[in-house]
Amino acid sequence: MSKLKELGEFGFIDRIANKVAPGTGIAIGIGDDAAATTQSLGSLTLTSTDMLIEGVHFDLSFCDPFTLGRKSLAVNLSDIAAMGGRPRYFLLSMAIPEKLSVEFLDEFTNGILAMADDFDVTLIGGDTCSSKAGFVISVTVIGEQRPDRIVRRSGAKPGDLIFVSGTLGDSALGLELLRNGVKQGFAVARHLDPTPRVREGLALAADKLPTSMLDISDGLISDLEHILDCSSVGARLDLDCIPLSATFIASHKNTLKKSAELFLSGGEDYELLFTAPPENRQCVYSLFKKIGTPVSVIGEIYMSTGLTIASSKGFEYISAKKGFNHFG
Amino acid sequence: MSKLKELGEFGFIDRIANKVAPGTGIAIGIGDDAAATTQSLGSLTLTSTDMLIEGVHFDLSFCDPFTLGRKSLAVNLSDIAAMGGRPRYFLLSMAIPEKLSVEFLDEFTNGILAMADDFDVTLIGGDTCSSKAGFVISVTVIGEQRPDRIVRRSGAKPGDLIFVSGTLGDSALGLELLRNGVKQGFAVARHLDPTPRVREGLALAADKLPTSMLDISDGLISDLEHILDCSSVGARLDLDCIPLSATFIASHKNTLKKSAELFLSGGEDYELLFTAPPENRQCVYSLFKKIGTPVSVIGEIYMSTGLTIASSKGFEYISAKKGFNHFG
Q1: Number of domain units in chain A
Q2: Chain B 202-221, residues with CB within 8 Å of chain A CB atoms
Q3: Chain A within 8 Å of B233 (Cβ-Cβ)?
Q4: Is residue A218, in this structure, part of any structural domain at all?
Q5: Is the Cβ of B110 closer than 8 Å to some Cβ of chain A?
Q6: Do B27 and A44 touch (CB under 8 A)?
């Protein structure tokens, strides 16, 4: 096990820089005071940043460094996807405690660069320093999109349908399983290695199908509330229509109330939640079919504010969480 | 003393967003998944990020939150200044330990927004989360500059003069004083509340005077080495020409060796170190005179690699630090 101290800060930066595949549009990459990049003519610059803190966002006993690297970038790419944007570049800052070996950090950077490669984004800079507590990761993603294609949280209109990509609750179930000592499987993978819906967001934006969009990081209810607040509308959510994976259903067949908490408030799904007028429904379906990602209609936007949750079994799913209590 | 818990994450974000003065060029600011901003036609996007960790970069017993806020942005603005760029927007991430009150955080954000106001940059987004250890701050600044005006580290040419803005060593002296219980004064202020040389960097770039430039954060020797490495050249540094403040000279009149360590390797000066051909010397002087910042010639670039340090007293200033030992 090699120590970072032997490599030094600049040795470590060089080690990362040597692994970065050349990207397009980069006038100045790693190694100067700032990076200098181009953007497509007529596009706005999209920027988003997320911090991941050991003990708050991740537990090193649950995840290998490669997968942690992938997730560190994925959660940031997901924010650009939620605007319908194209992510292009990213900055990576790390505060590194002495306990982490060079091998760990190599695997971590291999993971983040593998995710970057999957979505054609390039590392252009960052910062490294020592940490007296846990491992701290901060990623900033820079993307772009034409102003007329950018999808905000504020455009939902009464009559719009509410769509969600993929399935919900898997990540929260995966975290629960990890805490119970389960190390692998579908749900655990969904928690540790989420897929940002960049392709889906870009395709939706290109066809101007959604009226509002975000990615589900805090949980369906809490994030839907953001759309409702920003758009000054209300909604009905059809509990029976929320898409669940076979793994999720099999795990929870006897505890429906607990299940509802996981898929309504569990968070970290990193699926796209968006609204679109009913006439766009078929276009949304065929767009997702082409990409190979499931998509579902889970409710409708109303003029009156507030959120009602409809279910064939009535309103029995009252969560203890704030987002959900609000409508209890 | 109010607790952040009572305010909540979104309440805290709203509290900051309400204090942000509207900036130009911002299509989408705080409150969506990503910010969307314009940039001037023909400019490249400049991005730089720095993390500040409690116990590594700052000590809460040394600094008030307002000044810490100012410095958190200043060190990032300094990186954009070092490229000759115009900073325009910034993202702020904070991992906040429970010990910090809402009042502390209000003062911190007031400080960072005051620095933003000083240099006409606007907060457009960020991330907030809890920290189980210390306070962690991560700032990303987005700026711009025309490609023909951007100043890199790699353009120094044999025969160029080496310039430095302001005075060196004050920050390191200030830190030493703080550690000895001194709470104020010129040197302490230089350490806690540095001024990023944005105006100076922009003016130099506009007139295309420098061949290479960076800001001194690690210390004069260490940062000059970056220019020499990137430009594949060597240099002679004139120890007698290094600009020192009256405060610095008064504090160190009897300990010249210790003094040299502070101004050669002390770091955190956030002054501009740049090279320019001798025929630009007068233009550099008049440009700095107009702004009201001192500037000095402290050496010359050589064709042969390596750094020699000339002094009327010979080569007596051998530091224990790596950057300096290298040439001992």
Answers
A1: 2
A2: 214-215
A3: no
A4: yes
A5: no
A6: yes
The complex's ipTM works out to 0.93
- Which domain CATH number covers B307? 3.90.650.10
Q: Among residues 143-162 of chain A, which lie with CB inside 8 Å of chain B?
A: 143, 145, 147, 150, 152-154
The secondary structure of residue B54, as a DSSP letter, is B
d(C-alpha B198, C-alpha B236), whole Å: 27
> Do A194 and A222 belong to one domain?
yes
The span from the CA of B89 to the CA of B93, in Å, is 14
Q: Over the stretch B59-108, which tens digit does the pLDDT of each residue have?
A: 999 999 999 999 999 999 999 999 999 999 999 999 999 999 999 999 99
B101 and B198, same domain (yes or no): no
Considering only CB atoms, A91 lies closest to which of B28, B49, B133, namely B49
Tens-binned pLDDT, residue by residue, of chain A (328 aa): 788 888 888 888 989 999 998 889 999 999 999 999 999 999 999 999 999 999 989 999 999 999 999 999 999 999 999 999 999 999 999 999 999 999 999 999 999 999 999 999 999 999 999 998 899 999 999 999 999 999 999 999 999 999 999 999 999 999 999 999 999 999 999 999 999 999 999 999 999 999 999 999 999 999 999 999 999 999 999 989 999 999 999 987 666 677 888 999 989 999 999 999 999 999 999 999 999 999 999 999 999 888 988 887 765 444 434 433 322 3
Q: Give A320→chain B minimum CA distance, Å.
A: 16
Determine the residue of chain B that is closest to A30 in CA distance: B48
A39–chain B Cβ distance below 8 A for any pair: yes
Instruction: For residue A265, give the 3-state DSSP assignment.
Output: helix
Q: Which amino acid is at A99?
A: K
* Cα gap B232→B209, rounded to integer Å: 20
Last residue of a domain, one of A98, A116, A145: A145
The verdict on a CB contact (< 8 Å) between B53 and A138 is no
DSSP state of B4: H
Q: Write the DSSP string, A139-150.
A: EEEEEEE-TTT-
Round to whole Å and give the CA distance between B143 and A125: 14
Same domain, B185 and B43: no
Residues of A in contact with B145 (CB under 8 A): 36
State pTM to two decimals: 0.94
Q: Which of B111, B145, B179 is the last residue of a domain?
A: B145
- Structural domain of residue A289, as residue ranges? 161-325
d(CA B90, CA B81): 14
